[in-house]
Design goal:
This protein is of the alpha/beta class and 432 residues long. It has two domains: 265 residues, 3-Layer(aba) Sandwich (UDP-N-acetylmuramoyl-L-alanine:D-glutamate ligase); 157 residues, Mur ligase, C-terminal domain (Protein-Tyrosine Phosphatase, Chain A), CATH 3.90.190.20. The chain has 15 helices and 19 strands. It has an eleven-stranded mixed sheet, sandwiched between helices. Strands 12-13-17-14-15-16 form a six-stranded mixed sheet, sandwiched between helices. Strands 18-19 form a two-stranded antiparallel ribbon. Strand 18 and strand 19 form a beta hairpin. It is globular and about 60 Å long. The N and C termini lie far apart (51 Å).
Length: 432
């Protein structure tokens, strides 16, 4: 069916194709759901959506349920599988095609899966690719400007995300979990009958006495008159939010606080999410998937506070994606980093040097000067090698943003194998 879609796309004007495309996906989803026998009907499905934090939150929920003894499956940007048998996600997309989705769901049903944690994107919701999936718990991590190249307006993007809550309002527990500190929180709570909220500044579940460490965090969860202490093994204040969302889900399911804590501690990290690269070097190297202005702001502000020495940030911005964010990415990186290295990130068929110059304009607004503390290196391998030569002390840090877990890099001539962690390792070794 993808070949049919490609043919139709080539024949129709772009605007007309964009209008009819979702309905084509809907037809596909209905067909494959019927063929595979509505496999998700006997599962409890938790959907996680938002601009940032979806993957880590999904992993946290999965870890908590698995440690509590449930037969639980996971499908995310990074990986998929059942229980401890989690394998990398090869497809360059978060929510897979309706055919692959329903095929996996049937396999999970055969394995007796009770719960499914499904990371769900705005594209999948807008295109009806998750038709036939009976979500009963919907989670919103946060909503910021993203994917406007596809959705056109922020309102359309927001409404696509809200669709998850409207679906969940028709099944099972009919329950929503919403970030109370997000300015769009009420748009999501109004879309579902039953909900709980979480946050640092407010919410039904609130984190207090937060202690951020390089290897994680501790904090106290306040739920009305109840309090309990939490330890999270993944660093960053944004992961305090992610863990709160996971706690809210687990609490709704009826797990004890001891079970919740065991699941959070057990999860030591997620590939490409604040992943450290240790080859015995003196300085710190971190790989993260952050690729939106909001995720840049959250992550780099944390790193700036925890990095005593030089902070070097390397990133790019994808071609055929929201062009307007490039300047903002550059400006935010320039604000927090001592040095900014701008490189490729899935340029696709867009001029990579043009993308780099757009990002550089933003970094310049934060005071960065080309060839002094801002460097433009198109080839990502060369850029990573250069980055490792810009630091030396034990208090210095290099962070590589944008590629994270992905196993390919997209250029004008197609997809090429890529592994950010391995590239970082080779670059570190070359400095010794």
């Amino acid at each position: 069916m993808s070949k049919v879609r490609s043919t139709v796309k080539g024949l129709l004007p772009h605007g007309l194709f964009r209008v009819i495309e979702p309905w084509g996906h809907l037809v596909e989803a209905v067909i494959w759901t019927v063929i595979y026998g509505f496999p998700a009907r006997k599962m409890h499905v938790i959907g996680v959506t938002g601009t940032n934090g979806k993957t880590t939150t999904s992993f946290m929920i999965h870890s908590i349920l698995a440690k509590a003894g449930y037969n639980v499956a996971l499908m995310t940007t990074v990986a998929n599988g059942v229980g401890e048998n989690i394998v990398p996600q090869v497809a360059h997309m978060t929510t897979v095609s309706s055919r692959l989705l329903q095929k996996r769901l049937r396999e999970y049903r055969k394995q007796g899966v009770e719960w499914l944690v499904l990371e769900t994107t705005s594209h999948a919701l807008a295109q009806h690719r998750v038709w036939g999936v009976p979500y009963e718990i919907a989670v919103m991590t946060n909503i910021t400007h993203e994917h406007l190249d596809y959705h056109g307006t922020f309102e359309h993007y927001l409404n696509a995300k809200r669709k998850l809550f409207r679906i969940a309002n028709r099944h099972g527990r009919k329950f929503g979990v919403v970030n109370a500190d997000d300015q769009n929180a009420n748009r999501f709570t109004s879309a579902i009958k039953n909900f709980t909220t979480y946050g640092v500044n407010g919410g039904d579940l609130r984190a207090s006495s937060i202690n951020l460490r390089p290897d994680g965090s501790t904090y106290t969860v306040v739920m009305g008159r109840n309090k309990f202490d939490v330890e999270c093994s993944i660093p960053g204040e944004f992961n305090v939010y992610n863990s709160l969302a996971a706690i809210a889900v687990a609490n709704k399911i009826g797990l004890r606080f001891e079970q919740i804590q065991q699941g959070l501690i057990a999860l030591k990290g997620v590939e490409g999410r604040m992943a450290t690269v240790d080859e015995g070097q003196d300085f710190s190297v971190i790989v993260d998937f952050a690729h939106t202005p909001d995720s840049f702001e959250r992550l780099l502000s944390d790193l700036r506070n925890s990095t005593k020495g030089k902070l070097v940030v390397l990133f790019g911005s994808a071609g055929r994606r929201d062009e307007a964010k490039r300047w903002t990415q550059g400006e935010i990186a320039g604000k927090y980093a001592d040095e900014v290295i701008i490189t490729e990130e899935d340029d696709r068929d867009i001029d990579g040097n043009l993308i780099l110059s757009q990002i550089a304009e933003g970094a310049a607004r934060s005071g960065k000067v080309k060839d002094q503390n801002m460097f433009l290196i198109l080839d990502r391998s060369s850029a990573i090698q250069f980055a490792m030569k810009r630091v030396s002390g034990k208090d210095d840090a290099v962070i590589l943003l944008g590629k994270g877990h992905e196993k390919t890099i997209e250029r004008a001539d197609g997809e090429h194998p890529w592994n950010e962690m391995e590239e970082a390792r080779r670059a570190i070794q070359a400095t010794k």
